[in-house]
Each structure stands twice: as structure tokens, then as C-alpha cells.
Design brief:
Helices cover 65% and strands 0% of the residues. It is an all-alpha fold. The chain has one domain. The longest helix has 34 residues.
């Protein structure tokens, strides 16, 4: 009992500190308040000036990657830290025999318990056709996120989905993407670094952090903004993709769902 109380003390302290911190946010407007600045001034400004300020006809991209670029950078950092946290929590690898979860016996006509439940040539062929199409669409979503629906988060999720299909649905075939845990963690960090590097380059160009119009490139103001947004989106794509792969790799090291006897 004393040990449980001792373990609960840090949690209680953190809860008290967070409660005290949030209690100081009484200056923020109430949720749903129609007179809040976001509803009376901010939204109108974005609609009227987004294209001129950011050179992006997509208001969503303009807000997420330009007006609130700091927030999106921290979101990308949180993604990386989430993957790193999973790796740390699941660092101890159990005995291989203990981590295999055998499938249930679905019918009495199965030759043996481990007979593949959904294995077929057609499935493997279709997956290898679908995967390149998903990757092509991911690239399209990435590079057209500035002018249409999409962006780095969506593109990264699509590429991560290809990895999931490769490792879980068709594990025995030639894979388009293969990243061990150590490399995927490093790649997730590289995605966050690319985002930060974009801000550093704007400082070198004499602007403030993430002021894309100050990138030290021989381009017009509009082209610099488009380039800065694209660099940030590439970093987000790599970060999201690698984080999804990192989490899946960490889980796979803890348990395997084998169809083999």
C-alpha cells in the first residue's frame, strides 16, 4: 500500500501543477463565444489577406503552415516524441517464443492451426499494384497541399499506411519500404529538423523565424513563400511517416501475429 502511495505522488504533483497553470488562463475567451477575436477579426483577416500574405490559395494551408507555423512545428515535434516514447517504453524485447500470438482455429477442415487464413496469390498481386498507387497519391497530396486539399500530415499517413500493408497484410513478399526501428526514429527526427531548418534559413536571410519571404534564395517573394511552405510540408511528411513506422516496429518487437505453424 505504501509503495502505491509513493508511486502516485509524482502523478498528483504533476496534476496540481497543470491545474494551477490552466487556472491562470482566465484571460482566454470562452469556448463558443461569438464575440471572441477569432470570430470577429482573425477569420476575416485570413480570408481577406491569406493569398497576398502567403501566396497560397488554400486558406487551410495558409493558416496551418504560415500564420500558425510555430504551432504546426511543435505538433511535428510531438509526433516525433510520441514515436520515441513508444520505443523507450517498449525497449525491453521479450523472448521470441513468448511474443508469438497464434491465430484461433476457425474451422475443423483446416490442415493445421497455423494455416494461413487469407493467403492467396491474388491478394499479394493486388497489394503490389495498390501500394505504388498509394505512394503516387501521397506525393500528389504533398506537392498540391498548397493549392488544394492535403499536405504533410496526410501524405505522411498515406506512406505510413503502405508500410503497414507491407508488414501486416503481406509480410512474406518483397517490400517497397523497409525501415528498422533505429533508422525510423532517426528519420522522424530528421523530419522535425527540416522544419526547424526552414526557420533557421529565414533568420539567415534577415527575417524572423519561419518568415518564408526572407529565405536566402534568388526568388521572388511569392516563390520564396511557396518554397518555404513546401520545405515545411516535406519535413512534416517525413516526420509523420517515420513516426508511424517507428510505432509499428516497436509493437512488432513485442508481439508477432504469425500464420505459420
Amino acid at each position: 500500500m505504501a509503495k502505491k502511495i509513493k508511486n502516485a505522488i509524482p502523478v498528483v504533483i504533476i496534476a496540481i501543477v497543470l491545474a494551477a497553470a490552466f487556472a491562470r488562463f482566465d484571460f482566454l475567451p470562452s469556448i463558443g463565444d461569438p464575440d471572441a477575436p477569432a470570430h470577429t477579426r482573425t477569420s476575416d483577416y485570413y480570408i481577406e489577406h491569406a493569398v497576398k500574405d502567403t501566396n497560397s490559395p488554400n486558406y487551410v494551408t495558409a493558416v496551418i503552415v504560415d500564420y500558425r507555423a510555430f504551432d504546426t512545428m511543435l505538433e511535428t515535434t510531438v509526433m516525433f516524441l510520441a514515436g520515441l516514447g513508444v520505443v523507450i517504453l517498449l525497449a525491453s524485447r521479450p523472448d521470441p517464443k513468448a511474443r508469438i500470438i497464434k491465430p484461433r482455429k476457425f474451422t475443423e477442415n483446416r490442415e493445421h492451426l497455423g494455416a494461413p487464413a487469407y493467403q492467396s496469390i491474388n491478394k499479394d498481386v493486388m497489394i503490389k499494384i495498390i501500394e505504388p498507387l498509394i505512394l503516387i497519391y501521397a506525393v500528389y497530396v504533398l506537392f498540391h497541399g498548397e493549392v488544394s486539399l492535403g499536405g504533410g500530415f496526410q501524405a505522411g499517413a498515406l506512406i505510413g499506411m503502405v508500410y503497414i500493408i507491407d508488414t501486416m497484410v503481406s509480410p512474406g513478399t518483397i517490400s517497397l519500404i523497409r525501415l528498422p526501428k533505429e533508422r525510423s526514429v532517426a528519420l522522424a527526427g530528421a523530419g522535425t529538423f527540416i522544419y526547424t531548418l526552414t526557420g533557421i534559413l529565414t533568420l539567415v536571410g534577415g527575417g524572423v523565424f519561419l518568415e518564408y519571404g526572407k529565405l536566402p534564395f534568388s526568388m521572388s517573394f511569392e516563390e520564396k513563400h511557396s518554397t518555404g511552405i513546401l520545405m515545411v510540408e516535406v519535413g512534416v511528411t517525413i516526420g509523420v511517416m517515420a513516426t508511424i513506422i517507428t510505432i509499428l516496429n516497436a509493437i512488432h518487437e513485442r508481439a508477432r501475429f504469425d500464420d505459420d505453424k
